[in-house]
Specification:
The chain is built from five helices and 24 strands. By secondary structure, it is mainly beta. The strands form five sheets. Strands 2, 3, 5, 8, 10, 12, 15 and 17 form an eight-stranded antiparallel sheet that branches. A four-stranded antiparallel sheet has the order 1-24-19-22, with no helix packed on it. Strands 4-9-6-7 form a four-stranded antiparallel sheet, with no helix packed on it.
């Protein structure tokens, strides 16, 4: 073999060795800057208490509405109104106007000498002033205040000093038109164990009749849990509410039915269902995975950290979750639903073992979880070395 061939062979060998070293270096560099999932389980299921029960509270049948009605504030069979030099007599009618839209007075003039005008004053403001012949009359008053006064007077007979102006009135009736607010309020008790294990509140009711010009509203502890215009007589209406939304607490709570203006509903067979978890049975979920001894050493050399993530598909009773990695507990008090994000735990690779490792989920609450992942998070070479260069 010539010297040239020997040199060529040696050069090729050196190039191959260099490439192998380079490939190994590149491979290790990729591992050093990546997140590696070493375990994944998509289906897990429910943990904690599995025993959910409920208590039924019948509310009965009743009406709720806010409709315009008439209230007779005053009703006088006869009054004589006079004003002259030697005698004077008027009538005054105070009345409340809370919720009132308007008011009106009806009366009959039975007799008069017509020496002056018949006058009506509403809250000091003149609303009628005429010589009024016998007959039936109606005078309206708009925008009543909270407190009102209607006065009936006459003008003086003046030069006819020998006789006062006289009106004999009969069937005097003062009517106030106001919205009557017909509410239905029912107190109900929530026991301590129900408040602690609360799952869901459910309101059920039927409708026998309705004037649907306004919404029907149901409030629990002052918090609105239902607003709609139910019109079907064949349906059972249902609405669910959470403990937080309705401010449910142990002890006395209240539910109130009312309507918007011009609405009225005949409600039948209303009831509350209180769902809650009870009992001492608690289901845990345990799973295992293996870690190669060489991999574990590499993770430690690279200053890697670990992370466990999972999704909470449903939170039935939120009391926190304990995740045990190889019997080391990690307490989680803030569990978010899947729609809001993923729950995660950070751990040290020193918590891992070469060979078999275990994860255990347990709780005093009740959750449905899925998509459990165990990841190794390895910093890049730059960050591991402090970003020099």
């Amino acid at each position: 073999m010539s010297d040239f061939i020997k040199v060529l062979a040696a050069g090729v060998a050196l190039i191959i060795v260099a490439l192998l070293i380079s490939q190994t270096s590149i491979f290790r560099g990729e591992v050093a800057s990546s997140n590696v999932t070493i375990f994944s389980q998509s289906i897990v299921g429910q943990i904690g208490s599995l025993q959910e029960t409920f208590r039924r509270i019948p509310l009965g049948s009743f009406e709720a509405g806010q409709t315009l009605g008439e209230e007779v504030a005053k009703n006088i069979s006869e009054a004589t109104i006079q004003n002259g030099v030697f005698s004077e007599h008027s009538e005054s009618f105070p009345f409340a106007g809370n919720g009132a839209i308007k008011a009106y007075m009806t009366f009959d003039v039975a007799d008069t000498n017509a020496y002056g005008n018949l006058q009506l004053y509403f809250n000091g403001r003149e609303i009628y002033n005429n010589v009024t012949q016998p007959g039936t009359y109606r005078v309206e008053m708009t925008q009543p205040a909270a407190s009102n006064t209607l006065e009936i007077k006459t003008t003086s007979s003046g030069a006819k000093f020998w006789a006062p102006t006289t009106y004999i009135l009969r069937n005097i009736k003062l009517v106030v038109e106001r919205y009557g607010n017909q509410e239905y309020v029912i107190p109900f008790t929530v026991f301590d164990y129900e408040a602690i294990g609360w799952s869901t509140g459910r309101l059920l009711f039927g409708i026998d009749d309705a004037i649907i010009a306004g919404d029907l509203l149901a409030n629990v502890n002052g918090q609105e849990v239902y607003r709609d215009r139910p019109i079907s007589r064949s349906m059972v209406y249902q609405t669910d509410f959470t403990k937080e939304k309705a401010q449910i607490h142990a002890g006395e709570n209240t539910i109130r039915f009312r309507t918007e203006k011009d609405g009225k509903y005949s409600i039948s067979n209303a009831e509350l269902l209180l769902f809650f978890f009870t009992g001492t049975q608690s289901v845990e979920k345990k799973m295992g995975f293996n870690v190669d001894e060489g991999q574990l050493l590499l993770y430690k050399e690279q200053n890697s950290t670990g992370q466990i993530t999972f999704d909470a598909d449903n939170i039935y009773l939120d009391r926190g979750i304990t995740v045990e990695l190889n019997n080391k507990p990690f307490e989680l008090s803030n569990i978010v639903k899947k729609e809001e994000g993923t729950t995660s735990i950070n751990f040290s690779v020193d918590d891992l073992r070469a060979g078999k490792n275990t994860i255990n989920f347990k709780t005093r609450g009740s959750y449905s979880i899925s998509d459990v992942n165990v990841m190794i998070v390895t910093p890049s070479k730059d960050s591991a070395s402090g970003g020099s260069g």
